[in-house]
């Protein structure tokens, strides 16, 4: 089945796509744009885990048992859940990977798993990159209206009246983890987990980075252009 995009929509890129990005780069926004334009699902390990636990599957019970005991969940258990999700028919044309692969062993497993399907395409990865200072401002300046959920930023998109929602007049709130200390820790974890995954796909010629410090629609164009280049290089 072909995906026909209307004027202004991102051109369709088939197969699995991995979007990478530090907290605050806008990865979630870009994923939503591409999902809606292309009609493909977002494969989120968080969603998969919650569905398995809620559905009472054997792998879900094992996961819940490990988490309740305070143990780390082994890669093979996460891989098993992802494998089962990828067997569902909505993934046939392509999908966006969210939160997986998070580690180098997971990336290596995924390559091997996809390689067993002769008609399948390999993962191509794009990282949205924004400078640390800019990201810090995005995170620490973020404020949310508790009534309508409108998001402001005291640095880049402030409300008309300081501390008040333009629509509701309600006092804006800051998330507990939107502090400089929490952000620094999240960045340390992200760098430690993601760097090996990036180098893995870079070595395979299946990785590009794009500048995320642009308007949303420009970043979307950059992501799609990078994906088109990566898919075009696969037969070379």
UniProtKB/TrEMBL annotation:
Residues 44-73 are annotated as: NMP. Residues 142-177 form the Adenylate kinase active site lid domain. One of its GO terms (cellular component) is cytoplasm. ATP binds at residues 24-29, 142, 151-152, 214. Its EC number is 2.7.4.3. It is an enzyme of class 2 (transferase). It catalyses: AMP + ATP = 2 ADP. Catalyzes the reversible transfer of the terminal phosphate group between ATP and AMP. Plays an important role in cellular energy homeostasis and in adenine nucleotide metabolism. Monomer. This is Adenylate kinase. The gene is adk.
């Amino acid at each position: 089945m072909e995906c026909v995009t209307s004027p202004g929509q991102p051109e369709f890129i088939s197969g699995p796509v991995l979007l990478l990005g530090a907290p605050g780069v806008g990865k979630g926004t870009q994923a939503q744009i591409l999902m809606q334009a292309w009609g493909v699902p977002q494969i989120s390990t968080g969603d998969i885990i919650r569905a398995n636990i809620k559905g009472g599957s054997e792998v879900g019970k094992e996961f819940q048992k490990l988490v309740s005991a305070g143990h780390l969940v082994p890669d093979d258990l996460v891989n098993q859940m992802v494998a089962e999700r990828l067997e569902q028919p909505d993934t046939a044309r392509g999908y966006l990977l969210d939160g997986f692969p998070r580690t180098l062993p997971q990336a290596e497993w995924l390559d091997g798993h996809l390689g067993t399907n002769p008609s399948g395409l390999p993962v191509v990865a794009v990282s949205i990159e924004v400078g640390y200072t800019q990201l810090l401002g995005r995170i620490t300046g973020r404020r949310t209206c508790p009534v309508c959920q409108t998001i402001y930023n005291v640095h880049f998109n402030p409300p008309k009246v300081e501390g008040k929602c333009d629509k509701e007049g309600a006092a804006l709130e800051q998330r507990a983890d939107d502090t400089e200390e929490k952000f620094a820790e999240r960045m340390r974890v992200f760098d430690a987990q993601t760097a090996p995954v990036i180098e893995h796909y870079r070595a395979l010629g299946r990785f590009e980075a794009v500048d995320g410090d642009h308007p949303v629609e420009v970043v979307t164009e950059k992501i799609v252009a990078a994906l088109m280049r990566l898919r075009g290089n696969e037969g070379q």
